[in-house]
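Hey, can you fold this one?
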Amino acid sequence: MTSTTFFPGRYIQGKGAMGRMHQEMARLGKRVFIIAGNTALKKILPPYLPEMEKQLKVKVARFGGECCEPEIDALMSQVEDFGADLVVGLGGGKVIDTAKIISDKLAVSNMIIPTLASSDAPCSAIAVLYTSDGKFQRGVKIKNNPQVVLVDTEVIAHAPVRLLVAGMGDALATWFEAESSRQTGAANFTLTGDSGSMTAYALARLCYDTLIKYGLAAKISCETQAVTPALEKVVEANILLSGIGFESGGLATAHSIHDGMTILADLHDLYHGEKVAFGTLTSLFLTDKEMPLIDEVYAFCESVGLPTTFYELGIANISDEQLRKIAEASCNKYKPIHNEPFKVLPEGVVDAMKAADKWGSRRKGM
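Sure. Predicted structure:
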């Protein structure tokens, strides 16, 4: 059996890492086109531009707010007119995905500088395309992972705490989904159709262990805008370990339930990782995990503030019919929930979601 493992070309993380930005850019190109989100454009990038412009030809464009075809076409035209040989995505997930898609279409180098640790997207060769009004359109597979991912943990420490916690929720699923994929020999989340590697499965487990051990300390650090060893570890888990774990190890129940939950308008205000976290809790009951492990995961979620009940998700009065719709969407034949080592049916997902909510409510005395 052949396995394939995907990595970014170079991953750099640390306090003040933005100071190395121009050096990394110079390795990849001479004409640099930076796509930046509003906060990055106004507050994060300006101090570094003078040094950058001493060595490189630089053009900066403001991201319009949506990773959609009109935005991509407009920016791509600017990139071509400038003659860029390096496209940089500086900002949140949609900025990053836009930069990845453009660099892929134009076959130029790509550098990613996330300003949040809210998901595992920065390292992957995957992007999500939306319509102009923000509705999910489709996933896009990129031919290559980013050549450089640069993460300044001082920038992350000044971002909203809820986003760091959402990133933990996304990363929490990594080991459970990779382990299910390993047990069944399912193909990993790539175009190759190969299985995951020993390395991917080991990093997925390290991701989980890091969250359990350092998650709360990292949240406390972010609340005080302090860069501590715990914050460094959790940022690496959220972005690098989870990124390699999901892309090279595989997905299963948690992300499928996230996708199913997107059909409810009441859940649209939740972040990706918050929904994935509840998908993970559901998966614990669906896959018949032992209670000590279930309690360990619930205790972690409670400590950092991830939702463990329907009430905390904002759907306290959800009906059986709505749960059934979520379950049916989660069990679409194309969803990775079928990477579990048994046949998954919608009624089983409904029961597991109810059990997950009940246990969360019971632990909280609700």
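Strands lie at 10-14, 31-36, 57-62, 86-91, 109-114, 126-130, 136-141, 148-152. Let me know if you want another pass with a different chain boundary.
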